[in-house]
From TrEMBL:
Family: Belongs to the SusD family.
Main location group: membrane
Listed GO CC annotations: cell outer membrane
Domain SusD-like N-terminal, first and last residues per copy: 73-192
Location(s), subcellular: Cell outer membrane
Keyword Signal: yes
Organism: Parapedobacter pyrenivorans
Domain of life: Bacteria
Gene3D superfamilies, A to Z: 1.25.40.390
Residue ranges of every copy of the RagB/SusD domain listed in the record: 289-587
Protein name: Membrane protein
Keywords annotated in UniProt: Cell outer membrane, Membrane, Signal
Taxonomic placement: Bacteria, Pseudomonadati, Bacteroidota, Sphingobacteriia, Sphingobacteriales
SUPFAM superfamilies assigned: TPR-like
InterPro entries linked to this entry: SusD-like_N (IPR033985), SusD_RagB_dom (IPR012944), TPR-like_helical_dom_sf (IPR011990)
Amino acid sequence: MLASKPHMMMKKIIYMLIGAGSLFASCKDVLDIEDLTSYDPDQVWNDANLANAYMANIYELFGNWSTTAEQRSEQLIGIHFYPDRITISNGEYKSWDYNRIRLINQAIQDVSAGSLDQSVKDNIIGQALFMRAYAYFQMVMYHGGVPYVTVPQDRYEDDLYVPRNSTAECFEFILADLDEAIVKLPEQIEKSAGDYGKIDGMFALAFKAKVRLYMASPQFHPSDPWNNAHWQDAYEINKQAYETLLANGYALAENYEDIALVERGPEVVFAVINAYPNKVAVWDHGVRPGSESRGAANACPTWEYVKMFPMKDGKAFDDPSSAYYKTEDELLQSYWEDRDPRFEKSVVWNGKSYEVSGKTGRRQYTALGVAHELDDFGVNPRAGVNSTNLDRYSGFFIVKNSLLRLTQEEVQQYDVDFVLMRFAEVMLNYAETANETGRLDEALAILKQIRQRAAIEPGADGNYGITATSRAAMREAILAERNIEFCFEGHRFWDLRRLRMLERLDGTTKHGVEAIAVAEDGTELSITEARTKASAYALQEDDFKYSLLQVPLSGVRVNSLPETYYFFPIQESVIDRNPNIEQNNNWGGPFNPTLE
């Protein structure tokens, strides 16, 4: 059965195949073979190098490092969701990727007619089918059902004014594409292979399991979020993905900080390859303090998120049963002490040892009048200077996945491979489905592995601070673990949206922490003395007192996430071009984007 077709595209086009060689090793020499600014289909699909170059360009759909991905959540400074950020008429949060879909469908059609070896054809078709499923999944995640196109269209011969497929039909097509892709793809591409960076069966299986998790999730079942029949299907495929990848050598990296920085490690399920100078990514020059970068940092952790990290026994700071219990006021003055080890490996704070750019003994300071003007945060009147960072900084920076060896001049040469999916995600997806199908013991076993790798104390009961004994409590424990384990990786907002928990972000504010240097008796040091000590890195964390400042101090200061954001609207201009496309019912139209 063919799905309905979208509203645009020409049958014959010129493809822009730019920079294909930077995406994976097998295409390194392709630019020496042919000018890839245009192509003859008969030539491309009869030449394995050109065919691989064509496919390499579509790999851009997997993205790359993004420093600001977590501004949507409470993790980073910035009120991302101001009132009416998303409307029917603007382009915010619209995913309508039919240009790429056409390139994918063209590849499936044309490679089948070419003269390449069947094994090469199958590999290319397998990649293309996965890409089609991946692209449609992004659209369905945003909007619900969309027109699911499976053939390249001719604007002169095809009926372009077609309606949306239902959300259930789209998921059916996505799963069918993934199943066929898994059959055609190599089962597993070794980390040392020349084809590393291409899609393989392990990634396809893990992604299929993620699709099933979404199908079961409350986003698509608002009236039956936790007991719908899709949870059992999701459990079965997520358990299969976990056990299959485990049997094929995937595992948690021994050290949390090595997940991305030690490339091609055991935890990497799929990575986008970066290699200086051909392909670099935005990370270090977006997270480093300005004094060690090429401009101000654009991703700073919030106090709200700092509080969310557990203590080193795995319990919340304000849990009376924790050996490290503190009130919030006590935590504010010693937030770096006795924390989950992932905190130290992820966040930079005032006074912390931070030997960036190869500077031995260096400490990072943020105190106004003491820190470099590109690093400071605060309103201390004794500093005699105003900070320019009060709307963008927080007194915290990110160290996770940072290449500290890069000098300031080299900071834009960041080329660490972007880890799109890692084994920890496969594990936690499995844990979630296990819990929602009544298998709390399986969910607990996964959480214990994650926390053991994090070096959290096991405790007398060996549960690493996890006390959940009910389905609801375990649900919260898994969500909290995802929030910490995947910090700054762009998961948090989408997890809350998938679980219909956006109210946890709605109406919230964000804060940073100001540091002021003090003497042993608690009196404030003069700015001159504090600056002198700081220049010798003689001030440590406990040589300061701390207070909270709301960020930003000006402009929009409260998050606004209405109920309508569980499915984003189809852009008005799309409907204007094709009146058969119906708007979502949460945006005034008749289309139901859920699975109910």
